[in-house]
């Protein structure tokens, strides 16, 4: 019995030994050399493409597998940069273009303003108001306000007179015709700034009102014979002067609102000879 038991143990031990030899035999064999993985060559470095308003694209190096456990990265080259659309024109550029388009008109306007830098054409209504204010001040002035003024005294005398039916209208027509002819003979730039405002004759006096709205150019016009007082001063040389009985004249010059105001009085001698006929519409030839 004991011998049988020993035989069984020996048989089991042999089986165990055989099993161990069979199991460990594959592990003890040398490991086979793994197959070499194909090596992928890195593509050439991509060149940076410069585009307007686009950032430079740098190519990344491609990693190569060196062993069985390494992972081969994707060797696909980077996508090319997307084209960048030009920026839309800004409002400032549009405004600049509009300004350039309007430049010729603005320059022409500037040239015209530089050529005519003086005051605008005289406004007779405004000049009439200024002369009315001037006459009102003279009429309201008393002898205590200032020294005696011949024009002021003449004005007050004129206010007290009435018209002479057989003489006043005739005298007014001669005066207006002579002064109108003088104005018509002036250069255009002088005519634009001088105006005969009013002529009125009464029994012994004629009142002549005029205005000039370019006082800075009076010196040049005076040198050229275009100043208003030169026209008034030429009246005694007219052929109707003595025939209408005029013997004297006086003028007061004032200024207001950049206007030069003229108030003249022509004095008639009451025992003068009969007045000449009134001038025709064409005038009697002013001085």
Unreliable segments of 5+ consecutive residues: 51-59, 62-68, 110-115, 282-287
> What does the radius of gyration come to?
59 Å
Structural class designation: alpha+beta
Q: Please give the largest β-sheet.
A: 4 strands, antiparallel
Molecular shape: rod-shaped
Number of strands: 4
How much strand content do the residues show? 5-15%
Structure description:
With 287 residues, the chain is of the alpha+beta class. It has a domain at 150-268. It contains nine helices and four strands, in the order ααααααββαααββ. A four-stranded antiparallel β-sheet has the order 1-2-4-3, with helices on both faces. Strand 3 (246-256) and strand 4 (259-268) form a beta hairpin. The longest helix is centred in the first third of the chain and has 27 residues, at 2-28.
Secondary structure layout plus pairing:
Layout: H1 2-28, H2 91-115, H3 124-140, H4 150-160, H5 168-184, H6 188-191, E1 194-201, E2 205-212, H7 218-223, H8 228-233, H9 240-243, E3 246-256, E4 259-268
Antiparallel strand pairs: 1-2, 2-4, 3-4
Q: Could you give a short description of this structure?
A:
The protein has 9 helices and 4 strands, in the order ααααααββαααββ. Mean pLDDT is 75; it is low at 51-59, 62-68, 110-115 and 282-287.
